[in-house]
Design goal:
33% of the residues lie in helices and 20% in strands. By secondary structure, the chain is α+β, with helices and mostly antiparallel strands. It binds aspartic acid. The site of aspartic acid has 14 residues, from strand 8.
Length: 342
């Protein structure tokens, strides 16, 4: 990897004051699990999109397929987009084989599984939780925050206590497979991983949907970067970063290196692009270009956006090759290779 290795960083950081420790962190974040992939845009598949159908649901990565199935069941019965996105993302949250979301998610560097999630409704309400341990379905806790309080975000022990008081079941969500992955990582002491181990399936699920009534909603839930520093929170629970909905214009969600998404208010920026008349694909492109501009060099990390307009048109784009999204509309549910910018 470029920059400092993780082990070296820890040594260097230990020898620096708090301010000094911030500097290596920046170079520390320079790699990604998609290092070295093609930058040939002409070879990229064409974007799906522009379907303009309702209802419709789109979500990130291949675990989006079963998630879309669950969301579709709600939508095809005339249900609300909000219920659909919650039901949808609960599927990977509850699946121990999805090692990037909910139960079975990869732990942080202290072998603790800490989860982030956010949800947003068509009437502008939003709820989120971050750095939550011991609960399989942070998306439903986030929804509870949205519906039962006038707060938007609750984190850490406070969120766990809130969940307990609201009847959510506390469970051990660290699976044997996730623990073994952590032991392997620990044994290697991560000279190379940059929190994106190359041999493990991971990535956030972001989902946006439009229901038969034309209303939009979004949800985003993750265990965040594998083996992250304890307490690290990514973009997924931050309204406007990992996910955003404006029922007048559209909705968007993000996956990839959350730090980069937070710095540009990514999903909000995509939705603002829609408001200004950009197509969903062009709105994603403009947000990714903002990252590139701010980064100042050709990055090796991955960021991807999905977007859905009020008219039911969709678009998606990633920085690097390899991003896939699942699109369910008109009774079909398909995995699509997204176009990539680099
Ligand atoms: N965006 C997530 C985060 O930074 C990671 C991912 O999408 O895999 O926490």
């Amino acid at each position: 990897m470029s920059g400092l290795s993780r082990r070296n960083f820890i040594k260097v950081a230990a020898g620096l004051g708090a301010a000094g420790a911030l500097m290596p962190l920046r170079s520390f974040f320079s790699g990604s699990h998609l290092k070295g992939l093609s930058a040939d845009l002409s070879a990229a598949p064409l974007l799906a999109g522009g379907s303009g159908t309702k209802p419709l649901v789109i979500s990130t990565w291949k675990h989006g397929l079963p998630a879309n199935d669950a969301a579709w069941k709600v939508l095809e019965g005339g249900g609300a987009a909000l219920d659909a996105v919650e039901a949808g993302v609960r599927v990977p949250e509850g699946d121990p084989n999805v090692m990037s979301v909910g139960y079975g998610g990869l732990p942080d560097e202290d072998c603790k599984v800490t989860l982030d999630a956010s949800i947003m409704a068509s009437d502008g309400r939003a709820g989120s939780v971050a750095f939550v341990q011991g609960y399989k379905h942070p998306i439903s806790i986030a929804r509870k925050v949205m519906e039962a309080t006038d707060h938007v975000m609750i984190v850490g022990e406070g969120a766990e206590e809130f969940a307990r008081k609201n009847g959510f079941q506390r469970e051990d969500i660290l699976t044997d497979a996730a623990r073994e992955a952590w032991i392997k990582w620990k044994q290697k002491m991560s000279e190379e991983d940059d929190w994106f181990p190359k041999d493990l399936d991971h990535d956030t699920i972001g989902m946006v949907a439009i229901d038969a009534g034309g209303n939009l909603a979004g949800a985003c839930t993750t265990s965040g970067l594998a083996f992250k520093i304890h307490g690290r929170v990514g973009d997924s629970p931050i309204i406007g970063a990992g996910m955003y909905v404006d029922n007048e214009v559209g909705a968007a969600a993000a996956t990839g290196k959350g730090e980069e998404v937070i710095k540009i208010c990514g999903s909000f920026l995509v939705v603002e692009g829609l408001r200004q008349g950009l197509s969903p694909k062009d709105a994603c492109k403009r947000a990714l270009e903002r990252i590139l501009k701010k980064h100042g060099a050709k990055p090796t990390f991955q960021v991807a956006f999905i977007a859905l307009s009020k008219e039911g048109e969709i678009g998606a784009l990633s920085l690097q090759q390899g991003f896939q999204y699942a699109l369910a509309a008109g009774g079909t549910n398909e995995l699509v290779d997204a176009e990539h910018l680099l």
